[in-house]
Design brief:
By secondary structure, the chain is mainly β. It has 2 domains: about 90 residues, Immunoglobulin-like; about 450 residues, 6 Propeller (Neuraminidase), CATH 2.120.10. Helices cover about 5% and strands about 40% of the residues. The strands form 11 sheets. Strands 3, 4, 5, 6, 7, 8 and 11 form a 7-stranded mixed sheet that branches. Strands 1, 38, 39, 40, 41 and 42 form a 6-stranded mixed sheet that branches. Strand 6 and strand 7 form a beta hairpin.
């Protein structure tokens, strides 16, 4: 529920200054005989692993400097049988994208990436960073990924973690159209001289001299073990890439682009594991028979102008295709179509030039009373999750965002679940009590706060949430979503990826409000551990209240560390000494993650009390 609460990680930011007479600051008559509600320890563990601007990364000069900010994609590369690591508890390498554009002499202009080795403590399943010494001599815990050999990197947004072997690609989403746009307001990429591509595996690109801006907006493979770029994937086309997925055949790659129109792309390698040679396609749903239209990846001009080639081939247009993930059990591909409020002007020209609208957009436009997706009246406020089934070769709507509201409802009337602008997407594979389970991890990045994306009272709070969906559920609906967490105020929640052992999910909090307390005023990477605990999963269920009663009822959720109410109320929290420690106005839940264990008294403005025992 998008209420005015902070995340599981965040300290409670109570508005104590607004407390009125019904909530005196101290010396209250605390009714310690009130009904006691026990809040057990969370079955999940929460750890902050990596803080942008604070943790130091090792540069090419083996100098430690603060890491870049705006963490987005997270890649996880599991330890293989051939990896030589001294620590027996090592589980794999983590790669974190930085979407923030900077000009920096030591860690590179543009975007960036940080890599580190993760270990798991066998006694309590906690995670820790393992110091390393790389082959280039760098030593430390966190390593700036060196992109100098590929001409630096752009805004690093989404990416790919191969389900086959954990190979990592970072997506340069920041689509540029001229050199002036890569160095703005004194930051970005300072060297705008022409760039000559050299010594790549791509004959069509080798020794081509291009304008500097054209060397951005590719998928870039990196080596997390050595914290170094391997190659820009010039044969996948230049696009505002966001996400992608490698199929279990280790030949087929599915790609999405964050644009309106965004195109769905497929690359099929000639040889498994070698993505330097193969055939590139763009999806055209109405092609008849095979919906994939080939685009010649041996023609470098066509790779530079991929969107124009897609349009001339009559490709299907989507409204911001962002993250792409693949279910290795079924082969199905899931994509977030994040949406854009009124996309009409964004794709009308491409439609006139031959591209076609995805069928669900035509149907939605008609249902709204618009003449089509190019009608200015057409809206797409919430986006959706799409499914591509290789067996049928069809893209269908897996789950629509929403529900729709013409006017944002007040907190009292706000739905328990509202899916707004899904962005990050991945699948967690775990084993619970001997049963293999697959969970879709859905993360929001709100395009706005209107039309019910947040309650009426909070028009400036983009509180982005993360949901879990059991993929064993047939024909799931919004009711099947389970709210797992949300980030601190102002932050996007993104990058969620499971560790190979199925115990943990790594998540990023990106560009939070700088007024948040440390470390939640920085972009950071945190871990949620315990998904293999059957008891933990049971606690994810949303509370169900008897709405036919006037009694004030509370429901503690130890997993989220949130206390839910059956009605909107003004409440105050007092410690055992009678000191007021927090006041909340017009809320249906409170976040108790920042409170120490102990006994507290929860009091409503109507005088009802509950005793909370936080363990």
């Amino acid at each position: 529920m998008k209420l005015k609460v902070l995340s599981l990680m965040a300290l409670v930011l109570s508005n104590l200054g607004l407390a009125q007479s019904e909530f005196p600051a101290a010396a209250v008559e605390t009714d310690w005989e009130a009904v006691e509600v026990v809040i057990p320890p969370s079955p999940f563990q929460y750890q902050v692993l990596f803080v942008g601007g604070e943790d130091l990364v090792q540069t090419g000069e083996n100098e430690a400097v603060p890491a870049k900010q705006w963490h987005d994609f997270i890649g996880f590369t599991p330890l293989s049988a051939t990896d030589c690591v001294d620590d027996p508890n090592a589980i794999g390498w983590v790669s974190v994208n930085h979407e923030r554009i900077l000009a920096d002499d030591k860690i590179g202009d543009g975007g960036g990436m940080t890599a580190f080795l993760l270990g798991r403590n066998p006694s309590d399943d906690t995670l820790y960073i393992i110091p390393q010494t790389l082959s280039d001599g760098r030593s430390g815990e966190f390593f700036n990924v060196d992109f100098s050999n590929v001409g630096e990197t752009g805004m690093n947004c989404g990416g790919i973690t191969s389900v086959v072997d954990g190979r990592i690609w970072t997506a340069e989403e920041w689509f540029r159209t001229d050199n002036a746009s890569i160095f703005l307001d004194g930051t970005g990429v300072r060297d705008i001289s022409d760039y000559t591509i050299k010594y790549t595996e791509f004959e069509m690109a080798n020794f081509q001299t291009i304008e500097k801006y054209q060397n951005f907006n590719w998928m870039v493979e990196i080596d997390p073990r050595e914290a170094k770029a391997i190659r820009k994937q010039y044969n996948w086309g230049r696009q505002p890439f966001e996400g992608g997925a490698v199929a279990v055949d280790n030949r087929t790659v599915y790609l999405g682009a964050d644009a309106t129109p965004g195109f769905f792309t497929k690359f099929v390698a000639d040889v498994a594991g070698d993505f330097t040679q193969g055939t590139l396609y763009v999806f055209k749903h109405d092609a008849g028979g095979d919906p994939w239209v080939e685009i010649d990846s041996n023609d470098f001009d066509k790779m530079l102008e991929f969107a124009a080639e897609a349009v001339s081939g009559g490709a299907t247009m989507f409204n911001r295709l962002e993250w792409v993930t693949l279910d290795k059990e079924t082969g199905k591909v899931y994509m977030t179509e994040t949406g854009r409020d009124n996309p009409a002007s964004r794709w009308a020209d491409e439609a006139a030039a031959g591209a076609v609208y995805a069928p669900h957009h035509i149907a939605r436009a008609i249902a709204q009373g618009a003449t089509g997706p190019d009608d200015a009246a057409y809206w797409d406020y919430y986006g959706r999750i799409l499914e591509f089934d290789p067996a049928t070769q069809e893209v269908t709507v897996f789950m629509e965002g929403g529900p729709y509201f013409e006017t944002s409802p007040a907190v009292a009337d706000y739905p328990n679940k509202h899916l707004s602008n899904p962005d990050g997407l991945s699948i967690l594979y775990t084993n619970v009590a001997g049963e293999d389970k697959r969970y879709l991890l859905i993360q929001e990045d709100l395009n706005g706060t209107s039309f019910g994306r947040t309650p009426l009272e909070y028009p400036d709070d983009r509180m982005c949430e993360m949901y879990v969906l059991d993929l064993d559920i047939a024909s799931p609906t919004l009711d099947d979503l389970i709210r797992l967490t949300q980030t601190p105020r102002g932050a996007e929640i993104t990058g969620a990826v499971g560790t190979a052992d199925g115990k943990s999910v790594l998540v990023n909090s990106q560009h939070p409000d700088t007024s948040n307390p440390f470390p939640y005023n920085n972009s950071l990477t945190f871990a949620i551990t315990g998904f293999d605990d059957s008891g933990a999963l049971e606690t994810l269920a949303a509370p169900e209240f008897d709405l036919d009663t006037d009694e004030f009822i509370i429901y503690p959720n130890p997993t989220e560390r949130i206390v839910y109410f059956n009605q909107v109320a003004d409440v105050a929290l007092y410690d055992i000494t009678g000191r007021r420690v927090a006041v909340y106005r017009d809320v249906r839940s409170i976040d108790i993650a920042g409170f120490s264990t102990g006994t507290y008294l929860l009091k409503t403005s109507e005088g009802e009390t509950k005793k909370l025992l936080i363990k």
